[in-house]
Write a structure and sequence with these properties.
The chain contains three helices and no strands. By secondary structure, the protein is mainly α.
């Protein structure tokens, strides 16, 4: 009886742990920028570095935009 219960339990576990084979995974609802902003705003270790990297990226993008506007007639 005990062996049959154990076998039945393992069979149920195996049936439920099939994973997501064949099903579509939903895409992330947040963009990479939004995720990085959320991490930068948190208090986890390394968040300050993420925040500074985002600031540097924003600064570079603003500079590129200024330079692009100068080159237009």
């Amino acid at each position: 009886m005990r062996a049959m219960t154990l076998t039945l339990g393992l069979a149920i576990l195996a049936a439920c742990s099939g994973g997501q084979a064949g099903s579509q995974q939903r895409p992330d609802s947040l963009t990479r920028r939004q995720r990085d902003s959320a991490i930068g705003a948190s208090n986890i270790p390394g968040a300050q570095g993420v925040r500074r990297a985002l600031e540097a990226s924003d600064t570079a993008a603003a500079r590129r935009a200024r330079l692009d506007s100068l080159s237009r007639p």
